Amino acid sequence: MLQEINFDGLIGPTHNYAGLSLGNIASAYHRGRISHPKAAALQGLAKMRGNIALGLAQGILLPLPRPNHGLLTRLAVDEAADPALLAAAWSASSMWTANAATISPAPDTRDNRCHITPANLATMLHRAQEWPATRRQLDLAFADTRHFAIHDPVPATFGDEGAANHMRLCRRHDAAGVEVFVFGRSGGRFPARQHEQASRAVARLHGLDPRRCVFVEQNPDAIAAGAFHNDVVAVANERVLFTHARAFADQEGAYEAIRAAFPDLEVVEVTEEEISLEEAIRTYLFNAQLVTIPDGSGMALIVPDECRHSETVWTWCQRMLAGNGPIRHVIPVDVRQSMANGGGPACLRLRVVADPATVDPRFLLTEDRITQIEGVVRDIWPEQIASTDLGTAALEEQAQTAYRAILELLSLNELR
Ligand code: SUG
Fold first, then answer.
1. Domains (ranges, CATH) in the chain?
2. Which residue's CA is the closest to the ligand 1 atom numbered 8?
3. Cβ distance 7 to 352 under 8 Å?
4. What mean pLDDT is predicted for residues 56-67?
């Protein structure tokens, strides 16, 4: 049976705050702070555990080997090099698996297979190095070619940020959907990372019906305010689009275009007067997981804890719950360590609609599995990392020990 499976990225042992992402306000703000990789990974695992408890299917993608010596060699990084180049090779940014790939579930595609295109993440150096190793994991997890087709990333001239700029509307996850691709236009104060040509290429590669694809431009003001990915200002689940009123360049035009392809669309919109774009980006209200709870009690919005601490945002949530809209639960989760780098609950997961029986079980989680992973994290993940730790032999040794331990635990030694 086809169902939505959330593949969360396990937060890696080199998680640090190097301020590498121009246009990502949280990353820039926390630059140079001390990070806490162990706490970070445990926060992510607690979120996964919570989702399993809600009855949701949960998968995992592993951290990538860091430091990436290949990148250091290609850039001839030495003592004289810019520290940001060194930091890039140590980045744990693959934790944000919403950027790992774009996924088109089988009911949407011409050949009835689930199509996957790893994102080239070309705009940011530390992210552009991710895809080859990510792809190796995708190739294993979704190896069954009767059900999955994995493409090469689109050429890096066209920046592609994966599922963070992609939404799917459908009556049920196992029914044919309408896929919405949200791209940015360059020229603003911050880079527009998702290029229109990349979105269009992915739609063609996946064999989507052009009548069931919508291409929408991100609001340049949203990008300038720090919404470097569309999933910072909008999220969709089944027939619901939960969005800030300033997410798209032509908001009404976007609703009309989506509705033309998907008449059942239900928009839950937050206006600028209710919650400003700035506050929405600060609290990451829209970087929530919007999920359908299998017990029939409606949809839940899994939001960062920061939302609970904003009076404006929390009051809005309570008011929404008191009404009779489709979102029936708001569940705060503590992913503070990731949030400080601009990654909320939705960034940390890649949604795949598939029959779990067709996925390599080593990438699927149970509560027991999570307990085992937590054990390894508690034993081996570094307690904290300062910027001066990057590049040291001690941290490298610790990171490699951690990586080996997790591969061993999950029987994934072929990723070595
Ligand atoms: O690409 N942060 C990530 C956050 C990605 C969030 N993903 C989604 N919105 N789907 C990024 O900007 C910061 C790393 C640093 O500065 O060290 C970083 O890469």
1. 3-415 (3.75.10.20)
2. 347
3. yes
4. 98
Per-residue pLDDT tens digits for 301-329: 999 999 999 999 999 999 999 999 999 99
The conformational region for residue 342 under phi > 0 = left, psi -120 to 50 = alpha, else beta, is left
Answer yes or no: pTM beyond 0.90.
yes
Residue-wise pLDDT tens digits, 148-158: 999 999 999 99
Residue of the CA atom closest to atom 1 of ligand 1: 21
The DSSP 8-state label assigned to residue 364 in this structure reads B
Question: Residue 329 belongs to what H/E stretch?
Answer: strand 327-333
Contact, 105 vs 169, CB < 8 A? no
Q: What is the pLDDT of residues 203-232, one digit of tens each?
A: 999 999 999 999 999 999 999 999 999 999
Question: Which pLDDT belongs to residue 377?
Answer: 98
Q: How far apart are CA 110 and CA 261, in angstroms?
A: 17
**347 Cα nearest atom in ligand 1:** 10
Percent of the chain with pLDDT over 70: 100
d(CA 413, CA 401) in angstroms, rounded, equals 13
Pocket residue to mutate for ligand 1, from 6, 61, 99, most atoms within 8 A of Cβ = 99
Cβ contacts of 211 within 8 Å, gap of 6 or more: 261
For the stretch 126-130, contacts whose Cβ atoms lie closer than 8 Å and that sit 24 or more positions apart, written own/partner, are 126/18, 126/20, 126/21, 126/87, 126/88, 126/89, 126/91, 126/93, 127/21, 127/91, 127/93, 127/99, 128/156, 129/68, 129/70, 129/71, 129/88, 129/89, 130/64, 130/93, 130/94, 130/99, 130/100
- Indicate which residues carry an active-site annotation: 161, 229, 347
Q: Which amino acid is at 252?
A: E
Q: What's the pLDDT band for 142 if we cut at 50, 70, 90?
A: very high
